[in-house]
């Protein structure tokens, strides 16, 4: 039997780097996303950025982009930096940006689109520039599913080629998967595909209706629970770590599982399980996002303007903007999220709440947790092990 702590961590609950805790929320984000461009050659159905083939005329230039990185480096605890888009490879200065970020002391990752721009030579140059991790998307267990979602034939195969190139040069790999109506039944199959690759992390994103992503693409609250069960089971035996994005209620799911495990193995019930190193990041809480024109948001999926660089300091905005402050105050959450025992480590997806209700502090729309639901479920705790 796996121990409770190991179970929780291997099952995919997000953990922070050792020097970052929830006490750092008010002063420093754990991760900062910088959308270096919205230019991209793909037409993905879920694209938050509604990316276009060409750069925006007001896109931050090289000098301002480097100044942005310098500003991020002044946080009391400098964040992990993720260079995203659009497609970062559409920027001619991307290698300079990576090099500058690394030289500034920021661990830096990048999420390129699976296009011909990510050549074998480009992957080697990113590794040489000091890139900490390369993240590519795989949104189906087969080409039909993935390419249909990405709307570019051959995208699945291109992703596999990039994975091979990164593996060959020793660049750590992360796979991102968006769970929606098209692939919710493929979680186990995707996990099996990924088992063949030397990846360090599978980041499973649960769709938020923003940009091109439509509300009817998202799965139901019941399907969230079934998806959580599949991810939990996969996390128990895969070599790679599994984490969720925009599904903080997965932490609640895992903690409920741990309570059952403790009860089963030790004959006692733990009312409030605690797992070390889970800090409970969320939109605006340990997370910030800077757009291609310098807009500062709590996250890329919660596009509420809180400031703009270079006019506004990112440090000051993160630490003092009213919305950031509200998002870091669990007592301000509304509905069931406001009274939930897991609000400090979960809090529900603030982006999904905003996308579906217009209120970033509203209750998570796609979480079933609540007294009446779980009184019923406690009569039969077994969850189906198949989503098909």
The name of the CATH superfamily reads Aldolase class I
Write out the strand line-up for the largest beta sheet, numbering strands in chain order: 7-6-5-4-3-2-1-8-9-10
Question: What is the level-2 CATH architecture name?
Answer: Alpha-Beta Barrel
Counting helices, strands and paired strands, the structural category is alpha/beta
Q: What value does the average pLDDT take?
A: 85
Number of domains: 1
Main sheet specs: 10 strands, mixed
Shape: globular
Percent range of helical residues: 25-40%
Termini distance?
Answer: 28 Å
Number of helices: 14
Gyration radius, to the nearest Å? 20 Å
Summarize this structure briefly.
The chain is 35% helix and 12% strand. With 388 residues, the chain is of the alpha/beta class.
3D architecture notes:
It is a single chain. With 388 residues, the chain is of the alpha/beta class. Helix content is 35%, strand content 12%. The chain is built from 14 helices and 10 strands. The protein has helices at residues 4-10, 62-72, 94-103, 120-129, 143-150, 155-168, 187-194, 221-235, 249-266, 314-320, 322-327, 335-339, 350-357, 371-377, and strands at 31-35, 80-84, 108-110, 133-137, 173-179, 201-206, 241-245, 287-290, 295-297, 307-308. The protein has a 10-stranded mixed beta sheet. Helix 1 (4-10) packs antiparallel against helix 9. The radius of gyration is 20 Å and the shape is globular.
């Amino acid at each position: 039997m796996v121990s409770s702590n190991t179970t929780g961590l291997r099952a995919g609950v997000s953990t922070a780097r050792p020097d970052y805790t929830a006490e750092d929320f008010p002063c420093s984000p754990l991760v900062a996303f910088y959308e270096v461009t919205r230019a991209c050659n793909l037409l993905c159905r879920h694209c938050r950025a509604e990316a276009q083939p060409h750069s925006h005329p007001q896109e931050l230039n090289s000098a301002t982009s480097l100044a942005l990185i310098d500003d991020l480096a002044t946080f009391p605890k400098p964040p992990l930096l993720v260079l995203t888009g659009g497609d970062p490879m559409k920027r001619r200065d991307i290698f300079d940006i990576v090099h500058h970020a690394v030289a500034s002391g920021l661990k830096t990752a990048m999420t390129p689109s699976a296009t011909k721009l990510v050549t074998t030579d480009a992957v080697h140059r990113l590794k040489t520039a000091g890139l900490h991790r390369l993240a590519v998307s795989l949104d189906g267990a087969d080409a039909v599913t993935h390419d249909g979602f990405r709307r570019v034939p051959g995208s699945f195969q291109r992703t596999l080629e990039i994975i091979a190139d990164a593996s060959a040069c020793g660049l750590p790999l992360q796979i991102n998967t968006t769970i929606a109506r098209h692939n919710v039944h493929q979680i186990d199959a995707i996990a099996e595909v990924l088992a063949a690759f030397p990846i360090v992390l599978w980041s499973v994103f649960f769709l938020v209706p923003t940009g091109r992503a439509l509300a009817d693409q998202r799965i139901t609250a019941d399907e969230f629970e079934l998806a959580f069960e599949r991810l939990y089971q996969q996390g128990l035996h895969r070599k790679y770590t599994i984490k969720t994005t925009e599904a903080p209620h997965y932490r609640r799911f895992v903690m409920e599982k741990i309570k059952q495990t403790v009860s089963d193995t030790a004959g006692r019930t733990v009312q409030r399980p605690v797992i070390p190193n889970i800090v409970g990041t969320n939109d605006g809480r340990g997370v910030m996002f800077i757009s291609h024109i310098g807009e500062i948001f709590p996250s890329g999926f919660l596009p509420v303007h809180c400031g703009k660089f270079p006019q506004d300091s990112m440090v000051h905005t993160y630490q003092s903007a009213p919305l950031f402050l509200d998002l870091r105050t669990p007592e301000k959450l509304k509905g069931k999220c406001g009274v939930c025992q897991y609000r400090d480590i979960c809090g529900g997806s603030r982006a999904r709440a905003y996308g579906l209700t217009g209120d970033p502090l509203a209750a998570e729309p796609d979480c079933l947790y609540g007294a009446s639901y779980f009184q019923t479920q406690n009569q039969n705790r077994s969850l189906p092990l198949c989503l098909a």
